[in-house]
Specification:
This protein has 521 residues and is an alpha/beta fold. It contains 20 helices and nine strands. The longest helix is centred in the last third of the chain and has 29 residues.
Length: 521
């Protein structure tokens, strides 16, 4: 006779608990491959598998039965991953201090019921193995899919040398999410007139009706740095194509940089650390000493680890440090060099997460750490009022730092002052829906900051309705190029899931009259 709680029947080895532990890691990665490198998979996957196997072994020992232990372990592991979703529903019922205890108690209860029920492992092995296989297959297909369509021959043609003339340093500074003065006033309630006037007092031309060509960072910057619309640069890419890696060659060797290099310039890039926007070998290294990667932080936010403050704090602290380092690095480049430089900088602000007060005070937004913007911000981070307050404070601080940076760059070489191009890649996105044009406030998301200063010996006219695609066409023309006529000032919306499914919105953006500032909570 078998001892109580034992089962001598032989059957399949239960492997599904380890797969339950690993599946969320694979699922989150495959859903975010556009901004998360596959190399980030290793550590969290190993930890998840090790935790799954360890909990399964412990449960089997307690039950003295492999099948019962596997069932309990699988439920407990799934419950751990569900914390970020389920705990907010429990918190109002028991209070913040008792949330973890109540959640743990429910998890143990469900695990005990599952262990008592103990379904046969064969079916659960099959189900867990199938969904895991699908995730692995999607990841494998993404990494091994056929080469992306090549850029057009025009985009890859040899860059011509500029005619003899002035060779000032050129700084192209992208302020991510920095909207146009009137649009920010209408949607957020922030008055940036002091900043715009400060730029004009320093000799900048500020386009009063400027707007983006595209409303996503990678699309906008790729178009700007190649002086062409993406539909022309990538004619073989259709609306169903969603692999953003097709943009990488155009970002790493853009037409603007190649033309400057052909004319004796040195090309440098100061990156933000955002994986979706890299400049290859030209990007200066940015240290990342945060306790966990962005991917790992996203995973931890799904578990009870979310209650620990140190991980999230290190990410917010690192973001503040990184933004400060970008400004300091650019200011240090003010000193003149023998070789003229073309410097691209991506400053990932005022884009969320909002980590600065108006004078640089540390801020800690609600919710898990992430780069969520627009409708994703409202879904995962906070309310519309949270967005307004966070954007208002961060854009104010970034504007102050930008004026300080401009002053440093202007003072660096008074004999041969630099060209400085300040540009938003898109505007604020409180009213943008990531996947619905009909639900999007085009008059907020597309209007952008667009300002340029050129030396006295390099005069350049900028129209009020300028878009980024023409910024360097006009600069090169001012420097003597004759092959870069202005393109039409056109704009397209596309959703995050299908970034190349473009819908033209040029005539729909308009220039609405500023509305009264929205009420502040």
């Amino acid at each position: 006779m078998n001892e109580p709680g034992t089962d001598r029947r032989r059957g399949p080895i239960p492997i599904y608990p380890a797969l339950v532990a690993a599946f969320p890691v694979l699922a989150v990665l495959t859903a975010n491959l556009a901004i998360v490198p596959a190399t980030d998979l290793g550590r969290p996957l190993l930890v998840a598998l090790a935790a799954g196997v360890s909990i399964q072994i412990l449960a089997a020992i307690l039950w003295r039965n492999a099948a019962r232990g596997a069932a309990s372990a699988a439920v407990l592991l799934a419950w751990v991953w569900a914390f970020g979703t389920v705990a907010p529903w429990i918190k109002p019922l028991v209070g913040e201090s008792s949330t973890l205890g109540a959640y743990a108690g429910l998890g143990l209860l469900f695990a005990a019921v599952a262990g008592r029920w103990a379904p046969r492992p064969s079916i659960l092995n099959l189900v867990a193995g199938s969904v895991t296989f699908v995730s692995l297959a999607n990841l494998g297909w993404y990494l091994a899919r056929p080469p992306a369509p090549k850029a057009s021959a025009e985009a890859r043609r040899e860059a011509p040398v500029l005619p003899p003339g002035p060779r000032p340093d050129v700084f192209y500074i992208v302020l991510d999410g920095f909207g146009r003065e009137d649009a920010v006033k209408r949607a957020i309630g922030t008055d940036l007139s002091w900043f715009v006037q400060g730029l004009r007092d320093r000799g900048f031309q500020v386009a009063g009706r400027a707007r983006a060509n595209y409303v996503q960072t990678e699309l906008s910057v790729t178009s700007s740095l190649n002086m062409a619309f993406l539909q022309t640069l990538l004619p073989e890419v259709g609306p169903e194509f969603n692999d953003r890696r097709v943009l990488n060659p155009l970002l790493e060797e853009p037409a603007v940089a190649r033309r400057f290099q052909a004319s004796g310039y040195r090309y440098l890039a100061v990156g933000s650390g955002f994986e979706g926007l890299g400049f290859g070998k030209y990007e200066l290294p940015v240290a990342n000493d945060a306790a966990v990667t962005l991917f790992e932080g996203t995973l931890l936010a799904k578990t009870p680890w979310l209650l620990r403050d140190d991980v999230a704090r290190s990410q917010y602290d690192r973001r503040r440090e990184r933004l400060g380092n970008v400004f300091e690095t650019l200011a240090a480049m003010a000193r003149p060099t023998r070789t003229p430089r073309f410097v691209v900088a991506h400053i990932l602000a005022p884009h969320p997460p909002f980590v600065f007060g108006p004078n640089g005070e540390p801020r800690r937004p609600r919710g898990p750490y992430g780069y969520w913007d627009a409708s994703d911000f409202l879904a995962f981070v906070g309310s519309a009022d949270d967005y307004r307050k966070g954007y208002d404070e961060q854009v104010t601080y970034i504007a102050k730092r930008t004026l300080e940076l401009v002053d440093a760059l202007k003072e660096g070489d008074k004999e041969n002052p630099p060209v400085i191009v300040l540009q938003g890649d898109h505007g604020s996105k409180l009213g943008l829906d990531q996947n619905s044009l009909e639900k999007t406030d085009l008059g907020e998301a597309f209007p952008i900051l667009s300002a340029i200063q050129t030396p006295p010996d390099l005069p350049m006219a900028v129209p009020e309705d300028a878009t980024p695609v023409n910024a360097f066409r006009r600069l090169f023309t001012a420097m003597g190029a004759t092959d870069l006529p202005d393109l039409e000032e056109r704009s397209w919306y596309s959703g995050y899931a299908l970034p190349f499914d473009f819908v033209e919105v040029t005539e729909r953006i308009g220039s609405p009259d500023p509305l009264p500032a929205p009420p502040r909570s």
